[in-house]
Design a protein that fits this description.
Layout lengths: L1 H13 L23 E4 L2 E6 L14 E6 L5 E7 L2 E6 L5 E5 L6 E9 L2 E8 L2 E3 L5 E3 L3 E6 L4 E5 L18 E4 L5 E4 L6 E5 L5 E6 L16 E4 L7 E6 L4 E5 L5 E6 L4 E2 L3 E3 L2 E8 L15 E6 L2 E4 L8 E2 L2 E2 L13 E6 L5 E5 L8 E5 L1
Antiparallel strand pairs: 1-2, 2-30, 3-4, 4-5, 5-6, 7-8, 8-11, 9-10, 11-12, 13-14, 14-15, 15-16, 17-18, 18-19, 19-20, 21-23, 22-23, 23-24, 24-25, 26-27, 28-29, 29-30
């Protein structure tokens, strides 16, 4: 893999003057050439490619929430603009398709190969920005769809099956798919439960929330959920507890295993690739003073196993007596709010950002 990266690095540098224009009627927005910047640490350093995504005027953006890669190598992104929820790019950043207006709070996006066919699992968090520029809420939604957007089924409000009381909020933020097809829904902006269904959307169990006798089961802003397959014999459900600045690991049936603490990092969903865990850091706090939740304070963090090895857009990770110390955003803010990380086969990263001045995803090209 390193030889492949070296080859691509050389051929990319040789062709930096080449540009690609999108097809079939999209109008490109020409941007000034960005100066090259390298961010990250150790073996995980990246060249920022801010103008990778070629977005036309017909596809406006609000927030870029999450991105996945399908079996054809296309990068699929979910956002929350009322005119488009799903954007599909090729590897060059050319926009090749877009669809969807039924997910105004488009937030979570997971892809799963089922019998050789890709399916998407979408979550609408129940929050969206209206035309007056104010955040309003509606019922959250979880859908399984084809790549083209045909809905296979929806998972309804947990109140309809008796596991939530009337008035309990349901604002789902993420879905993960287990090895047997079970569906794990993170109610990250609602009641902070992880709700487990079978592959048909039938309820099995739930755990999490905020009022457990054993605090290891408490989740506060259960923003993300994913399956950790790094130990193939013991896959685990990994849940974000963003307000606690940590990831909590559970068995497939919801038994607590361990916690990875990430001081000063309010992380989004965990993304696994080889032995690495990647995550966007949506918020952090400066060394001096405090910031508002809308201030640009994010970056990206990368772990090898359970150890943080790089913070692109942030300060280098430091450990003291085996304990991770606080990390901070770089002063010039190369990344504003890290909301998701997508990893391609060459270990390049694609970063989706929330509240980032309506900018499209940026590419971090590994060097």
């Amino acid at each position: 893999m390193k030889n492949r990266r070296d080859f691509i690095k050389k051929t990319t540098l040789a062709g930096l003057t080449l540009t690609t224009s999108p097809s079939f009627g999209f109008h490109t927005i020409k941007k000034p050439k960005q100066e090259e910047e390298i961010i990250g640490h150790g073996d995980y350093r990246y060249k920022m490619v801010r103008d990778w995504a070629q977005i036309g005027t017909s596809t406006p953006l609000l927030n870029c929430h999450e991105m996945v890669i399908d079996s054809k190598g296309r990068l699929i992104m979910i956002g929350d603009h009322p005119q488009n929820n799903i954007l599909i790019f090729d590897k060059s950043g050319k926009l090749i398709d877009y669809w969807g207006t039924s997910y105004p709070g488009g937030h979570g996006l997971t892809i799963n190969d089922e019998g050789g066919e890709d399916f998407l699992y979408l979550t609408d968090s129940g929050w969206y920005l209206n035309k007056a520029g104010k955040w309003v809420s509606h019922n959250g939604r979880v859908s399984k769809t084809t790549i083209e957007g045909k809905v296979v089924f929806d998972i309804g409000h947990p109140q309809t099956i008796g596991i939530y009381e009337p008035g309990d909020p349901f604002r789902p933020t993420e879905v993960a798919i287990g090895p047997n097809g079970d569906i794990y829904v993170a109610d990250g902006y609602g009641s902070d439960y992880i709700i487990q269904y079978n592959s048909k959307g039938e309820y099995i169990r739930h755990w999490g929330g905020k009022e457990n006798t054993d605090e290891n089961y408490n989740l506060s802003n259960a923003h993300g959920v994913a399956i950790d397959y790094r130990d193939s014999k013991n896959p685990m459900v990994v849940c974000t507890s963003r307000n606690e600045q940590c990831f909590k690991f559970f068995s497939l049936d919801g038994k607590y295993i361990k916690t990875i603490h990430l001081p000063n990092m309010q992380v989004c969903r965990p993304v696994f690739d080889d032995n690495n865990l990647y995550a966007g850091v949506c918020w952090s706090q400066p060394k001096i003073g405090k910031t508002d939740w809308q201030d640009h304070t994010g970056f990206v963090t990368i772990l090898e196993g359970d150890i943080v090895v790089s913070n692109p857009g942030g300060t280098a990770p430091e450990y003291s007596k085996g304990v991770l110390q606080k990390s901070f955003q770089l002063k010039h803010k190369p990344i504003l709010h890290g909301h998701d990380v997508c990893v391609d086969e060459d270990k390049n990263l694609y970063i989706c950002q929330w509240n980032a001045n309506r900018t499209p995803p940026i590419k971090l090209e590994r060097v």
